[in-house]
Design goal:
The protein is 71% helix and 0% strand. The chain is mainly α. Helix 4 (49-73) runs parallel beside helix 8 (169-186). The N and C termini lie far apart (73 Å).
Length: 285
């Protein structure tokens, strides 16, 4: 079922010298890189922030659903001796979370932006998903069957989720909160489950203000927004290790970081910038 022999053929056909390349590719289906991409897109796409927030909500629903499912199924990863590089990961290998995430995150963007009938968007989503899936097999952390299952599950999950959520990101985050509770129980309050819960709570609260977010006034404001908000989020991620032993504090940290992503445009929008209405008003007083 997991296609172990085919997986070994793929692993053995790739020289170890390509490990860094596949390690870089695999981050496209992880947690950090997709959230950075979604955050920057949210900050810079002032006319489409609701659409991006919808895609973010899909991602958080997917996090809790997938980690709970993997723990319930309980199938292990390949043995560590076949890992191309040492990786910190959970012990469960089926289905592949990275393949699933690639479909839900990038496919979710295609859905949110109503591009599911655009062959170019579908080609991009399919290419990323295939690259991420192959990287997981090459790195030795999944079998071919794991990534196929993760991809197919992601497609079915995203199709069902879009019907449940509609165009309301707050509803998506509410569903994510609901799924995060059993995920916390099933995984024994794992860090990923805490991320799913805290991030969903922060997103549910912050998306209440989506319609009040000011539009970008200039490319300069966009650069400031990315720098300031990105710096705050990076600083918050840097203190994770100091609070990870206290689960409530870690959940609160994740909630705050997600809220910062969504609400940062309000704070930055109040800054006086050259040529802005705020700046002009101050100069005239």
């Amino acid at each position: 079922m997991r296609l172990e022999e085919q997986s070994a053929i793929i692993r053995e056909s790739v020289p170890a010298g390509y490990a860094d390349l596949f390690l870089a590719v695999t981050t496209l289906g992880g947690t950090t890189v997709p959230m950075i991409l979604l955050a920057v897109l949210f900050w810079l796409s002032s006319a489409n922030r609701r659409r991006v927030a919808l895609a973010v909500s899909y991602a958080f629903v997917g996090v809790s659903f997938l980690i709970a499912l993997k723990a319930l199924i309980g199938l292990p990863r390949p043995p560590e001796e076949v890992f191309l590089v040492p990786l910190e990961a959970d012990a469960y290998g089926f289905p592949s979370g990275h393949a699933f995430a690639a479909v839900v995150v990038y496919g979710g963007l295609a859905v949110a932006f109503d591009r599911v009938r655009d062959w170019r968007a579908l080609l991009a989503v399919g290419t990323i998903t295939i690259l991420v899936s192959v990287s997981r097999v090459v790195l030795g952390v999944h079998y071919v069957g794991d990534v196929i299952a993760g991809t197919l599950l992601g497609i079915v999950f995203l199709a069902a989720l879009t019907r449940l959520v509609g165009d309301d990101p707050q509803r998506g985050f509410a569903i994510a909160i609901g799924l995060s509770i059993p995920a916390l129980v099933v995984t024994g309050v794992s860090t990923d489950a805490i991320l799913g819960f805290g991030g969903a709570v922060g997103g549910w609260i912050a998306t209440r203000w989506l319609e009040r977010l000011p539009p970008l006034r200039s490319p300069l404001e966009g650069a400031i927004l990315v720098g300031v908000a990105g710096g705050i989020v990076a600083a918050g991620r840097s203190v994770e290790s100091t609070v990870e032993s206290f689960e409530p504090a870690l959940a609160a940290l994740y909630a705050i970081l997600v809220a910062v992503i969504f609400l940062a445009p309000i704070a930055v929008g109040r800054l006086p910038l050259p040529g802005s209405a705020v700046d002009d008003g101050r100069q005239s007083t």
